[in-house]
Each structure stands twice: as C-alpha cells, then as structure tokens.
Amino acid sequence: MLRLLRSNRLQSRKASLPIAAISTSIRLTSTMAGEHEAAILPQPGGPLSVGKRPTREPGPNEVLIEVKAVALNPCDYYQRDYGMPPVPIYPAVIGSDTAGVVAKLGSNVTTVPAPGSRVLAFASSFYQNGSPDHGAFQKYTLAQPEAVIPLPDSLSFEEGAVFPLAVLTAMTAWTTIGIPLETRYTPADKQAVLIWGASSSVGTFAVQSAKSLGFTVYATASAKHHDLVRKLGADAVFDYKDSDIVSQIVSAVQEDGVHLHTAHCVVDGALQPTLDILKETKGDAPAKVAHSPVLPADHPTLDNTLIVFNFPSMDEVVRSKHTKEVFHGWLSPGLQAGEIVPSPNIQLEEGGLRGVDAALDKLKGGVSGTKIVVPL
C-alpha cells in the first residue's frame, strides 16, 4: 500500500516509537502521583503556553494515555484564537489527535489493549465540558475507550496521530446523510460519489472510506495532488480550478454509466458547483450532500436534494456507538489489514509541546495536501 512522506524521525517507528450533549459537569478524578507538561490555553485568544498539570487517574470508563505525537486541525486554532468551537473552561487544554502508549485503564475498560501498548486516540475535551484532564496537547491525557485503538507496529506515532478527527469527520459524513457504515456496494450497483476537496485531511479519508463502501469515486483537488488522491482510491480526479470542471465531471459520469446522487463537500465554496453537477446526474432521483464546513443560512439548494451539515449526534449514547463503529469497526481492522493508510502527506514540526503554538500559526497560514504533526 501507499507509503506517504517520512522524515528521519519517522524511520525509527518504535523509538518515536478523538458530538453529543455536552456533559453537565466535569468528571472528578483523583490525582496520580506527579505532574506532567501541557500546552495550556490560559485565556481566550491564546497564545498557548507550557505549564504543569496534575496527572489524573482514569475514571472507570476512561483510558490514560502517555502522548507521543499530536496532529493539528483547523478547529484547534479556531479554539485558540476565537473560542470556537466553544471553550467553556479556562485555563484550557485543546487538541484532539493523539498517538502514544496506554498508561492506565479504567476499571470497566475491556476494549483497549493493556498498559504499555501503542495506540492512537481521539482525545478531545470538547465532549467533556472542556475538562482540561482531556485534550491532546499535553503529555498525559484521558480518552474514551470507544475512540482508542491499537496502533500497528508498521506505523510510527507520528503517522498514527493523523487519523482520529479526520477519520471521525469523514465517516460521520456518511451516516449524516443516511448511509450506514456497513454499506458495501458492488460494481453492479453503479453507485458513485463526488468528494470536493479530496486532498485535505478529511478529504483523503473521505476517499478511502468511499472506496471501502463500494462507491465509484469522483474527486476534486489541485493538480499537484492528483497522484495522491488516485493512490488513495479515487477513480477520477479533476482540478477544481478548471473553468469547465462541472461539464468535465458530468461527462465522465455519463460516459461511465454510473449513478451520481451523493456528494461530500469537504471545503468551503464547493456547494454550488456540486449542486450544478448533481442537477445533471441525479435525474429524478433524490440526492444527498454532506457539507463539512458550517452551512450558511442562505446556502444554495437544489430540488429533491438533502443538504446536511456534517456533525455527530448530540445524543451521547448515539455518538458513543457511532464513534466505536468508526474506530473499532472500521479504522482498526482497516489499519491491521493495511487497507487504510495515513494521509495526506505529513509535515513534522519540532519543539514538542513548546512548538505547538507556532505549528498552529503555520497551519493557520495555510497548508495544502499536508497534515502538521508535532512529536512529543
């Protein structure tokens, strides 16, 4: 399978070798002996500063993880700079994407490997009412077991950190528009999907997951990322900058004789051209569009077309079940089989926790076809 960008640090794998009703109260846990370093958000608007936090015992249904690498997402600098998604408690610990080693298991946890095992985890404080005992940007963090899975020995911690939020977002798009994760179309079904923004972090996993569901995948990306998107499983890739991209995709769909009624808009500015394409390809059938950026109130529409903001259920039980299906039901077996690979390309930033704030500035400044990862 595909081997993505590696640095010298990625070569030594074992040496170097994630949304429902928000909880009404912070989970109270007892303090373990000792403290650990954390990149703390002391007040709205940042910046992050490194300080000490008490290391907490995991609750009965939690996992304590020693973090070895973190990956950055746009929502991280939005939380740092604008307090959105909401940050209910300051000082705060933000971030969600981690890979590391299991330090301790809660008494009820049976689905996570034993202490000392290598894992990746979605470790966001967002669903824990902002509890700073959760959150990725610290040396020890608490996570929910449904979002903690083994990290294969074939992958470094840095590679493992790229998966959690992007995978959860990409997979939630399918269920948001009513496509179960156990769906397995066959070529005879001739079901196709359009993924607009396929070289982004979420987009690359939208492509990989679409192939596992059995779709014929039409994707858009900058020309320089076409090879990457094809290697991840896209059947056809188009340059979104082309003035005739709508007619290009419509022609390809018609020539291939498939049914294009489904789309995932991963990036802003994609909805109108996506609807223009669906208008020509869906016929009289209903169409469905998952939209990962926030939908403006005056967004464009199309007759007989469902357009839904991509967001997990606000019911905690439903969300936890979905998260387990994503991580334990899809991602874990896919990683073990080598069918799912880290994507997009990895850009390592140095400095550990002290380097996270500057790395967020680089992400905010703009990257293309790249996931920024900070080893700890």
TrEMBL record:
Q: Which SUPFAM superfamilies match?
A: GroES-like (SSF50129), NAD(P)-binding Rossmann-fold domains (SSF51735)
Q: Name one GO molecular function term.
A: oxidoreductase activity, acting on NAD(P)H
Pfam families (UniProt xref): ADH_N, ADH_zinc_N
Q: Where is the Enoyl reductase (ER) domain?
A: 45-374
For this UniProt record, give its keywords in alphabetical order, as a comma-separated list.
Answer: NADP, Nucleotide-binding, Oxidoreductase
Tell me its family: Belongs to the zinc-containing alcohol dehydrogenase family.
Protein name (Swiss-Prot/TrEMBL): Enoyl reductase (ER) domain-containing protein
